[in-house]
Input
Amino acid sequence: MTLLMRTIAVSFLFLWTLPAYAVDIREETSPGGITFWMVEEPTIPIVSVQISFDGGSRLDPEGKEGLTTLTVGLIDDGSGELDAVGFANARDDLAARFGFGAGRDAVSVSAQMLVETMEPAARLLATAIAVPSFDPEALERSRGRLLSGLAQQETDPNAIARKAWNAAAFPYHPYGRTATPESVSSITREDMIAALPRLINRANATVAIVGAITPDQAGDLIDTILGGITEGEPTERTWTELRATPGIAIFDTDVPQSTAIFGHSGIKRTDPDFIPAFVMNYTLGGGSFNSRLTEEVRERRGLAYSVYSYMSVRAESAGYLGSVQTANEGMAESIEVIRSEWERMAAEGITEEELEKAKKYLTGAFALRFDSNAKIANYLVFMQDQNLGIDYLDRRNGLIEAVTLEDVRRVAARVLRPDGLMITIAGRPEGIEATR
Amino acid sequence: MLHCALLALSLIFAGMTGAARAEQPVTSFTMENGMEVVVIEDDRAPVVTHMVWYRVGAADEPPGASGIAHFFEHMMFRGSEKFPGGIASKIIGENGGQENAFTSWDYTGYFQTIASDRLELVMDLESDRMANLIINEDVATTERKVIIEERNQRTDSSPQSLFGEQMRAALWLNHPYRIPIIGWRHEILELSVEDLTAFYERFYAPDNAILVVAGDVDPKEVLALADTYYGALEPSGQPPEPRPSEPPQLAPRRIQMTDPRVRQPYVMRYYLVPTYEPEKPERSAALYLLSQVLGSGIASRFSAQLQLEEKTALSTGSFYSPVDRDATSFGIYAIPTPGTDLATVEASLDAVLAEVAANGPTEEELERIKRKLRADRIYAQDSIRSQANLYGNALAVGISVEEVQNWPDVIEAITPEDVRAATALLDLDASVTGYLEREEEITQ
Output
C-alpha cells in the first residue's frame, strides 16, 4: 500500500517544473578598491549589508579564549564621541539595525539601513568598527555577562557534550579551546586594542550588499563603512585534521535526558566529493523527517525528539557530526541504532528512490534561501568566502542533479567510519560503558 | 527540523507591534463553510508560504488533558488514508518544500514554504489532514515517547523553563493559560487515542480555521484553489467556547525556586494585564510602549538605572504581548551582578517603575521609540513569513485584518501621559514575583 502510494506520488510530481529564481549578482569594485558582490532589489527602500572578516575566535591567543567575543561585544558599547547610550540613540534615530557576531572563523557585521538615512548610518557604523572606545565600565559589563553565560553552561548537557567533543577533536588547535572563567578574567583593555586590527581589517573583509541601491551608491557606502579600519594582512589558513578517537566518553550530569555528540573527520568544501556527500547526508541525517536517522530513532522507536547529522565545514578543518538527545534509559539503544545506520550507509549507500527524493528536495528548496534581502546578502558572502564563483547559483542545482548512485556509494564508503565514531555523552546514560 | 511546539511569542508580538502596516496588498475573505482566508501578495521571489491556523490551543484542553493540543499537532504528521504514514512530509520534501507546525495557548498552526507553482499540492495535503487523519494506538504510543523526550529536552533539562512553568501556574488562578503548552508530564503519559480522536472531531474543522497564503500568488487563484480544497469540507458548527476567566486577584504571589543546576540567579515578575481589545486598542498600545520604555535596549529605563548607574544588574528587560485571546501578562526581570542579591535588584526595578508612574517618559524618549517602530515596519516587509505570522496570529485570537492595519496609527497617537497612566495597570495584587536561585548541593 505504502509503496504503491509512493510510486503514484512520484510520477505525479514530475509534472511540475523547478522554479526559476532571478537573483542577478554583480561583482563591483568600490572607488576605494574594495571588491564586493551585490544585487539590486528596488522593491523595498532598504539596504542590507553583510561583511565577514576572516579569522574570528580561532585567532584568540592561548589563555585568552573569549577575547574575540568580548572585543566584538563592545563594538556597539560606545565609539568615537559616543558612549553606549549615545550610540544606541544615534542608531535608533537613523532607524538603522546593526549586528555584530564573533564566530569561530570570522567576525561578522551586518547592517540594515533605510535608503533615506543610509549615508549617516554607514558613518556611524564605520566609527563603531574603527574606533570602539573599549570603555572600561562597558568591558566589565560585558565580561560579567560572558562569565554568567559560561557559568550557566557548566550544567547544560548540550554545552558539556559539545565542548568535550571539540576538546578531544582539536587537542592542539584553537577549535578545541573555549572561554573559561580564568581566560575571560585575564583579558585586558590592551588585549582588545591589540586584537581589533587583527580581527577587523580590509584585507580580510568579504562584502555583499543587497537592496534599493545602485552599484555606484553601493561602492561609496562600502568605502564609508570600511573607511576607518586598518588595511591589515590576509589571515592565514592552516589545515588541521580533526582527530576522532573511536569510543565513548561519558560526562556525569544529573539530568533525566542525555545528550550525545557523535562524529569523525569529514571532507573539505573544495573536495570533489563534497556535493555527493551533501546528498548522502540528506538521506542519512540531514533531511529531518526525510532522513533515516529521524525515521529510525524518532518515528519508529520514539527514542528522541531531535536527531540529526551534518557536515561541519570550518576554515581550517572538516568534520562529519551529529547529535541526539534521549532519556538516560534509552541512550544505549539510540547509539546502537545510529551506529547501525552509519554502517548500513557506509556499506550500501542509498537507493535509487532515496537519491531521487534527495535531489528533488535539495534542488527545489534552494530557492527558499533567497526570500529576503538579508538572506541573499548572507549567501553572497558565503559564496565568495568558499570561492564558489559568481555563477554558482546557476550551476549549483546542476551539480546536485549530476550525482549518481555510484557517487553516493563511493563517498559514503569513503567518508563514513562507523568504527571511527567518537562519541561524547553528557547525562547518566544506562547500559553504556565509557571506552575512552 | 523540528515540529516546534512552543512558538516564540516574542517574534509574534514584535510583528504585531512592528509590522502592522504592510505595504504588500492584503486580501481577506470568508468561505461559505466559515473558513477565513487571508492572502498577502509579494512577488519578489517565486515562493509561497501556506499556513492553516486552528483556533485551538493549550487553553482549550479538557481538564486533566494538558498537552493534548500539542500532542495533536504531532499526530497531524502521521498520515491519512490518502496520504498514509509520513508520505505527506516526503511529498513536500521532494518538491523542495519546507514545513513545520507550532502550538500556543490560543492556536495551533501548520505551514509550508514552497515554490509558488506548487501551492495546489500543499493545499491538497493540508485540507486532507483537516478531515481524514488516521489516529491509531501504535502511532500514539510512539509519539507519546517522542513528546516526553521533547519535554525532557525543552523543559526538564532547563531550570529556567521549569521556573517559567511555575511562574505561569502561579499567575493564573483560574484561566487555563496556567497550563504549560507541552503539558504536565503525568498528564501527557495518560493521553489516549480516544482523547485525541475527540479533540480532532471537536476542533479540526474549516469554521475553526484560518488560511493564510503569502507570496508570489494571485488572490483570485488562491481563492479558487481554497474553494476546491477547503470549501468542500464540512463545518463543525461549534465555535470556540469561552474559557474560565480570572476572578479578582487580591494578593501578590511570590515564589522561590531553587535548582542545583542554576548558576545565574534572577528575579522575574509577571503582572496580569489586559490584552488587545477592539474597544480599547490604545490601552494595549500604551502598555506596549511602556514595555519599550522600561526594558528595550541599553538606553531603556531599567538598563540605565540598574546596569549603567547602579551596576547591580548584568541584564534587565520587560515584555508585553497584546496578541493573546483573553488576557495576557506584562513581564519584567533583572539578572544581578555577582555579589548583588535578588532583593536589591527587585527594589531597583520597583524604584524605576515608581519613577515612570510619577513622571512618565519624556517626549524625546517616546518619539525615539516610535521612530524605531516605524522603521521596524519597513524592515518587516523583507520577511514574507513574518507578515503571514502577523495576520494569522491576529485572526486566530479575534483581531481583524483592519485592526492589524490600524495598529500603527494607534501607536502614533499615544502620548507620554498615556504611557505614564498605563503603569496603573501593573497591579502588584495581580502579579507573581519569582526568584530562581541555585540550590547548594550537600557534600558528603
